[in-house]
What does this fold into?
Amino acid sequence: MSAIYLRIGSTLTSGLMFALLAAVALDLLAFSVAFGQQSEIQSWALPLRVLDADLSPDDRLLAVTLESGSTPQQLGQETAVSLEVWDYRQRQAIATMQLTRYRSSTVRSVPRPARFSSDGYLLAVADGNTVRVLEASTLRPIRTIHTAVDPDWEINSIETSPVGHLAIIISGGYERGHVFAYDLDNGNLLFRWDPPDVTVHSIAWKPDGTQFSVAASRPCGGYGELNIFGTNPWSQIKSLKARNSVSVAFSNDRLYAVQSSYCKGLFIGHHLGIEVFDAQDWRRLDPIVLRAKDIHDFVSFSNGRLVADTGELKAEHDWLDGTTWGVPTDTQITVWKGDAQSVVFTSSRLTSSQDLVRLSRTGRKVLLLDSQHLELFELP
It folds into this structure.
């Protein structure tokens, strides 16, 4: 039997297909999918407006934040936001709760990052400028952390430590950003870092929990840096230059960073790769490159595997204001074994660009998220 690859977000003209989508709009689907050179791969899709998602450390539960309303957002539109925990193998939500509503002042969604703790017991979710700490399986409230985030700013990212109950959060706006570390067990602020005149994009923890790195840059200004921090004591260890860095990943031996695809227009004819640094002495190593492809926007490392957003980018020009930017002509997912020793998996072309690509903590599953739906598939 041939595999079926159902991508929610594609343009559909068939009345039968439209009826099928309507029938499953509130259900979680599971099916096999053929990716690239691989045989059939188990895959799950959630055809809802998912803002953020995370898998529990054992890959059993899926936490998602969802929002109501139209796409794209309309100015002044009131939007309801909810948090749900799914047993996706059984195709059912096992817990749900409402988060704070908001009235949109822009045409984009307000982020609501959610992350499981390292042991899977806790779930931390951003709600306004607070962090709600919940029992993961039931969403029973444990505490609310009133963060030091400016009330007019948003919590853009949360990343929990691979050891214990610590969390790093990012807040800020255009060309601004702040980084905070909190103890989820008592709500105490452990660390704060205020970078000068850069946007903070991405956080990555070292697998042993002793260090974390933050990617920061000015939007397509050619400048970027990776800042490395230690947790005992809480202090900045190193700052590395990484051009237009928007995503960072940490293994025990390497630090990885990728650029924004939007900035590709500045480098016509040059393919973007992954910048690599030695995680012991911070030497710059040879970059990871793919022939005739760009590596951009997202990179993630977990349990001996490295995954990144890959494909081809082309330059678009606005001759009136003299701007140039990069546009994906196709999108793929590439997975490397170990510290990029070899490519072990390449997906077929995806029909839309992704807002988020990340490996689960086991390194066995990949989350793909765009503005309309989430896909989860198991690696061979």
User: Anything to note?
Assistant: Residues 1-47 form one domain. The longest strand covers residues 323-337. Residues 1-39 have pLDDT under 50 and may be disordered. The two ends are 19 Å apart (CA to CA).
